[in-house]
Structure formats: C-alpha cells, structure tokens
Amino acid sequence: MSLSGAWYLGLSAIVFTIGAIGLLVRRNVLIMFMCIELMLNAANLTFVTFARMLGDIGGQAVVFFVLVVAAAEVVVGLGIVVTNFRRRATTVADDLDALKG
Amino acid sequence: MVHVAYLMLLLPLAGFLVLLTVGRRVGDPVAGWIGTAAVGGSFVVACIVFAGLVGLPADQRLVVHNYYTWFASGGLSVPVGTQVDPLSMTMCLFITGVSALIHLYSIGYMKADRDYSKFFVYMNLFVFSMLLLVLANNLVLTFVGWEGVGVCSYFLIAFWFERDAAASAGKKAMIYNRIGDAGFLLAIFLIFFKTGTVTYESGPGGGIFGQLSHLGGGTATVVVLLLLLAATGKSAQIPLFNWLPDAMEGPTPVSALIHAATMVTAGVYLLCRMNPVLHLTAHGMTVIAVIGTATAFVAATIACAQQDIKRVLAFSTVSQIGYMMLAVGSGAYTAAIFLMVMHAFFKALLFLGAGSVIHGLEDEQDLKRMGALRRYMRWTTVTFSIGWLAIIGIPPLSGFWAKGDVLDNAFAHYPGLWVVALLTAVLTAYYMSRLEVLTFGDEPRWDTVGPHGEPAHHTPHEAPLIMLVPLVVLAVLSLFGEVINLPWAHTHSLNSFLAPVFSADQYVDGLTTTRQWVLGLADAVAAVVGAVFAIILWRGAAVDKPAWEPAFLQRVWYWDDAYDLVIGRPSQRLAVFCAWVIDGRIIDGAVNGVAHLAKVTGTAARRLQTGYARNYALGIALGMALLVAFMLSRTWWG
Question: Is B605 on the interface with A (CB under 8 A)?
C-alpha cells in the first residue's frame, strides 16, 4: 500500500512549523541553524511530493538546487558563527544586537 | 564743415581710451596734458562746426547725420546719429570750452594725487558722455549720454573713496539720479508708445516733433512731468536736490565742471530740447516754473547758513538751476540757455577760485577759518570777486543780464513767482557777499588754533600759474560773456541764433522797454541791497552769529532728516523685519522644520530596529503568513 500525498504534505507542514517556531523561540545560533535546515527540508519534501503527484520532474530538480544552496548557506553561516564565537565567546543570538537602532 | 561733428565726440573718447591704457605709465603731468589736449581739440572742432553752422542760412541750421542703426526691433529703430543745430552747438561750445579750462586747472590741482591719471580718465569719459547727451539725435542715445555722465559723476564724487563721506556721497548721488532716470525711461517709453519714434527731428517715423498730434490729451502733460522728474534728479531740483551738496566731497575741479557748469544743466537742456512737447501743456510748464522757483528760493536760504565754502557754492548752483527751470517754465528757453552758459562761466570760476583757496590753505574749507586772503592770493581774489559780482547780478556783468532775462520773462508769465525769484536774488547777493567777505575780507582767522582745536595754518600761498590761467580766462568770460545776448542787439545774438530751435523770437514777451528798465533796476537794487547788508553784517572779527545761521537752514530745512524719517528708517525697519522674521523665522523655519520632521520620524522608527534576529525572523514569518493568507483568500473567494 502507499500513503496518499496528503500525508507527506501534512508531515512537511509539521516539520516546517517546528522549524519556524524553533527559529523564533530558541536563542542558540546552532539550534537556529538546524531549524532553518528543518524548514528547508520541509520545503524539499513538499517539492518532491508534488513532483510525484503531478508527475513533473521539475519539482525534484528544484530540490537539488535547494540542497546546494543550503550547503552553501551552512558553510557561510557556520563560518560567521565560528568567527563570532572567537570574538565574543557566545552563541546566543540575542547577544548579537549590533544592528540595534 | 558741419559734418565733422563726430570728431567732437571721438577726441575725448580717444583721450579716455589712451589714458585708460597708458595713463598710469605716463603719469603726472603727461596724463593731464593728454586729457587736456583731447578736450581742447574737441573745443577746436566745436568752433569749426559752429562756424560751419553759422555759415548756413538760418532756416537750414539743422544737420542730422545718422552713422548707423544701433538696434531695430519691430517699429523701434534707434540710430546712432548726431543732431547739429543752434541749441546743441551752443551747449557743445561752452561744454568743451569750460571743460578744457578745467582740465588745464586740474593738471595743477591734482598734482601729486595718487590716482592722477585715473582722474583724467574719468574726466575725459565725462566730456564724451556729456557731448553725446547733447549731440544725440534721439532720446535713447541722449539717455546713454545721460547715464554716462551720471556714472562719471559717481566715480568722481567718490574719487577719494577711502574717505567714508566721499563713498557715501557717491552712493547718494547715484540713488537720487536713479529715481530721476526712471522718469526719463518712462517718458521715452510713453513717447515711443504714442508716436512710434524716439528721434527728435527726422529719421525713421519722422521724428517726435513731427508727431505732436499723437501727444494730445493728458499725454503731453504726463511726458513733461516725467521729463521734469528726470530733470529734478540730474539738475538737483526739489525734491531730489540733496545729493548735490554732498557731491562736494569730490575734487574741486569736478565740482566746478560736473556739479556746476555742465552735467547738472543736463536736465534744463533736456527740457529745452523737448520744447515742442512742453508747448503742448500749460500745466506742465507751470509745474516746472513752480518747482524751479521753489528750488531757487529754498536753496538760496540754505546757502545763507552754510559754513563750508563748497557747500555754499553747491546750494548756489541748485538755486541758479532753479532760475533756469523758472525760465523754462516761462517758455523763455533762450533765457534759460543764456543763464546756463553765463552760469557755467561764473560758477566754474567761483569753484575754481574756491579750489585755489582750498589749495592755498592746506585743504581748509571752513569759511570761519579763512579771512584776509586778499593779501596773499591777489589773482584768486580778483578773479573770484569778478565771479562774485557776476553771480549776484551787478551790472554790467554777465549775471545781471542773464538773470535779468529770466526775471523779465517770469514777470510776464508768473508775477507771483517773480516776487519770490526777486527775493531769491536778494538772498543770492547776501550769501555770496558773506562768502566773499569771510574768505577774502577782514583779518585772518586761519593763523590761530580753531575753536574745535583745529591747528593753525601756514601763510597761504597763491596757486601756480597753470591754475591761474583758467581763472583769468573765466573771469574775462564772466565780465564780457553777456555780449552774446544783449537786449538791444537781440536780432543778432544768442536769441536770434536759437530762435529756429525754439520756433519763436523769445525776447519780446510783451514787455515794453520802460518796464524792462524798471525790472532791470529792480534786479540791480536787489543785488546791491543783499550785498551791502551782508558786507555790513559779516565784516569784523566776530564771525559767530548763530541768529543768522539757524539750525533749520544749516540742516537743509531738515530735508535729509525728513527723508530719513519717511523713507530711510521705515526701509531699515523693513530690512530688519525681512532679515529676522521673513528670513529667520519663515524661510529658515521651513528648512529647519523639514530637518526636524525627519529627525522625529527617524527617532520613532529606530525603535523597530531591535537588532534581535528573532524579531526580524518573526517579521518575515508574519509577512509570509499574510502573503499566504492573501493568496489563499484569492483562491477560495476570488
């Protein structure tokens, strides 16, 4: 038996919500990164699901782009986090408020 | 020979250009000689042109020559051209003659001045402008000359501009003249609007004097009143006369040439030149006569109480030009021109004599610090005294005949004004005799320390020969100048010479010979009474007579104070208001208000920037949610 597409989309929505809420409520930069990854992968799951449901390979192709962008983002983002940790000895996002008006 | 008239203009212009380029290099006294030669040459040309003009039959003595068209636009065509006729040649002869003498005098007077060559640059430019004013064959070109003499007057009044008084006097003259010039411009506009031309006699459109029918109704009166406004500015008449006394801050030769003999008579010349228009309006003529008489009287009273030798002469000039205006208003243009020429002789003589006194007394100008100069400056005394007798109208000197002509005509047209004018003649005799007595008579007052701590002067010295020559020539002219217009020769005189221009033999005016004798006698008696009274009053050592020099007269009838009160102070208050309220509050307020507004909104908006990533993320999330909700709503209910 196979599950209908709605289950996949439901899972995707749940994962995305977890990621979004985690991004908003957590202070640790690394956790926030993971939350972003969750949201990205939720989006990927949606793409793949729709690709299967609609029989369109385009959705799967976009996933590759998202993965590449996510990887690049992690590289840059973690680089910033590490550099910042060296300077400020903190991974708490709220300590990084230099842009406060 | 008449066709060389342009040389009269070109010689001073060439002198001006030469002095402008090399004047500073050649310096003292070559620059002065160059300037004098240019003007002297102009005088020679004037004599040649005059001889040529006299050689023509009387009814053909009008030679207009257009050299080129300055500009043409629509119906307006302004030629650069000369008009040689008896009026312009009479003016040219005495302008160039007196100018040449005063240039010669200036070579001595301005000796060792730091800006020696610049003085002659301005003087030559002045002579050029004055001749342009007189010779121009249209109103616009006359206006160019009019402005030219105005600006030269400004330069020369403010010649010693390091002195605050001189700089201010220059500005004052400029501003007063601007008011008059506005009248001149409006008159030109109105004349062109009505007649379609600006030339006097002929040329495009036939000339103003051929279009007089278009100046009917009140137009002629308005034109004449505007021209009168122009004349009051340039010729220092009420209400614009106050600039002339202050103009005495300039070097004395300038006072003699510009502010006595020539430029200040330009207004009288303009009115005489426009005489066909004046004929159209009896009201305009009356206004001119009244203004002239009032000015003559007011200025004469003021002259009675002045202490500065040049200021006395300045008010005397204002007063004498008032006489000329009275003559113009009486329709006696010949009398006005006659007095103008004679006045040029004796007033230039008086000013140059005063310059000689000032020169001899180390720049002393206070009458109360002079006295007994007859013993030290014989030539100056004799020549100055001739000028004195001429101006007060002692027969048979020139002033008697010239002033007599004016008074005769005034009597014929405005008996009321004649009374005032005769009273003015008494005042003239009084203040000039006072000047004469205080300067040359009695005992010296310059050899002691003055009442205000002025240092005593050295013994005065006579002026150098180069300054005495013009004095002697002008004295001779003041003595015998009247031969050009003696009453019993009026068919072969200035009167008949000018008759074509003024389209009438002007002399008769309904006066019988007996009445002329009586009026002449009255003039002579007026002169003698004023003179004798002044001599009795002012001889003797006591020169402080406050009762005879009331503050009201010393302060020029409070005329300047009145202008200050009515125009000066309110203008200043308006300026302060503009500076502090209009500019400070409204304009600066608007600019600062915009800046303040930006600051306030910025201060409020910066609270949005918390610097916390979660806040920005929340904003993105909410924005996304809203976007999604919007798209969903479109899908479901669209």
Answer: yes
A24 contacts B611? CB cut-off 8 A: no
The CATH architecture one would assign to domain A5-90 is: Orthogonal Bundle (1.10)
Taken as a whole, chain B contains a residue count of 638
For residue A49, the number of C-alpha atoms closer than 13 Å in the C-beta half-sphere is 18
Domain boundaries, chain A: 5-90
Residue B396 has a CB neighbour count (10 Å cut-off) of 11
Predicted confidence band of residue B449 (pLDDT cuts 50, 70, 90)? confident
Element spanning B80, H or E: strand B76-84
Q: Which tens digits make up the pLDDT trace of B369-411?
A: 888 888 889 999 999 999 999 999 998 899 998 998 899 889 8
- What is the distance of C-alpha B372 from the center of its chain? 33
CA-CA distance, B563 to B442, in Å (whole number)? 39
Query: Closest Cα partner for B146 from B264, B25, B240, B43?
Result: B264
Q: Which phi-psi region, left, alpha or beta, contains residue B523 (left: φ > 0; alpha: ψ -120 to 50)? A: alpha
* Chain B residues touching A20 at Cβ < 8 A: 621
Distance CA B287, CA B336 (A): 16
What does the alpha-carbon distance between residue B201 and residue B388 come to, in Å, rounded to a whole number? Answer: 40
ipTM of the modeled complex: 0.82
Tell me which residue in B606, B607, B612 faces A97 most closely, judged by beta carbons. B612
Write A37-44 long-range contacts (CB < 8 A, 24+).
A37/A70, A37/A74, A39/A15, A40/A66, A40/A70, A41/A15, A42/A12, A42/A13, A42/A15, A42/A16, A43/A12, A43/A16
Question: HEC string of B341-404?
Answer: HHHHHHHHHHHHHHHHHHHHCCCCCEHHHCCCHHHCCHHHHHHHHHHHHHHHCCCCCHHHHHHH
Amino acid at B534: A
| Among B residues 607-636, those touching chain A with beta carbons less than 8 Å apart | 607-614, 617-618, 621
- What is the distance between the alpha carbons of residues B429 and B536, in angstroms, rounded to a whole number? 13
CA B458 to chain centre: 35
φ, ψ at B493 (rounded to 5°):
-150, -175
Worst-scoring range by mean pLDDT, A11-15, A29-33, A63-67?
A29-33
Q: Phi-psi category of B196—alpha, beta or left, where left has phi over 0 and alpha has psi -120 to 50?
A: left
Burial class (CB in 10 A: 0-12, 13-18, 19+), B196: middle
Closest CA to B298 of B322, B333, B266, B274: B322
Q: For the segment B191-235, what is each residue's pLDDT rounded down to a tens digit?
A: 999 888 888 886 555 788 888 888 887 899 999 999 999 999 999
Contact B131, B96 (CB under 8 A): yes
- Choice between B234 and B491, residue whose per-residue pLDDT is larger: B234
